[in-house]
Design a protein that fits this description.
By secondary structure, this protein is mainly β. It has one domain. It is built from one helix and twelve strands; from the N terminus they run βββββββαβββββ. The strands form three sheets. The protein has a five-stranded antiparallel β-sheet, with no helix packed on it. The protein is elongated. The protein starts with a strand and ends in a 6-residue tail after the last strand.
Length: 135
């Protein structure tokens, strides 16, 4: 059963294959400019929303039918080439905008005897990418 996807990486749970995420966190803020005034408190001016950010952990395990090395290579390529992609959960886009893979961190838990990764947890940081330029 497909849970969602980031670009062309599907999040799937089945009997012999599992690629999903945990510790999902989403944050956003607004942008303000402070105008200093002589002898008075500054005035704040709202200039708009800031980009949203999402962080999550993805566990890549060989015994879940995943090739950790191949998936890591794919994630690194998305990050290093600045790929822009939709983020889909439950068949619905997470926002009206696209996303970029801002950073990844890798924490290898177990290795196989031949030096190949058996299990790795990947910390993924996504940042919203606005497709609406200056109009």
């Amino acid at each position: 059963m497909q849970i969602g996807s980031i670009g062309d990486i599907p999040f799937v749970v089945s009997h012999d294959y599992m690629l999903t995420f945990h510790d999902y966190s989403r944050s956003g803020s607004s942008r303000w400019v402070k105008h200093d005034l002589i002898g008075r408190k500054p005035i704040l001016e709202f200039i708009g929303p800031d980009v949203e950010k999402i962080s999550m952990k993805i566990q890549l395990r060989l015994d879940h039918g995943i090739s950790p090395e191949m998936e890591l290579k794919h994630l690194r390529k998305m990050r290093d080439e600045g790929k822009v992609f939709p983020f889909i959960l439950g068949g619905t886009p997470v926002s009206n905008e696209y996303w970029v893979l801002e950073s990844i961190g890798e924490d290898v838990s177990y290795w196989r005897a031949n030096g190949k990764i058996l299990s790795v947890t990947v910390d993924v940081s996504l940042q919203e990418y606005s497709t609406k330029g200056a109009e």
